[in-house]
Specification:
Blueprint lengths: L21 H4 L3 E4 L4 H12 L5 E4 L7 H10 L13 H5 L2 H4 L5 H10 L8 E4 L2 E4 L3 H8 L3
Length: about 140
Amino acid sequence: MILAGALVPQGALAIREPAFTLVEMNALKIYTLSNCDTCRKAVKWLRAQGISFEERAIRETPPTPAELKAMLAAYPGELRRLFNTSGSDYREQKLGEKLPALSEAAALALLAGNGNVVKRPFLIGSGVALVGFDEAGWGAALLPK
């Protein structure tokens, strides 16, 4: 491996290290809802920062149980943080009352089965797990220091 800027003999092929971060190398997935202003702001911010990602419609393809478990690990003990507590599905199912009694497995199964109850935007990738959009928080997690 040749470091960027290293002297290379004349005629030799120079290989440079990639100019992107580990986060960009590993596919980031962002789960969004098309009519969600916060999701649109998050996607616009990612594009403005030049961060590549795969966008998925959260209603049609909710996060997988493994992704939900990874997100929960980023917010230990804050299962409620993964829920869209202001959504109609959350209110109609009275999840505010039921959530404290649900096991972690039952709550994750509920989230995986209904993208409407998942907090969005939901961004997951190697070494990063974020719910909701906070520009400062996303910048700290995704941009080079």
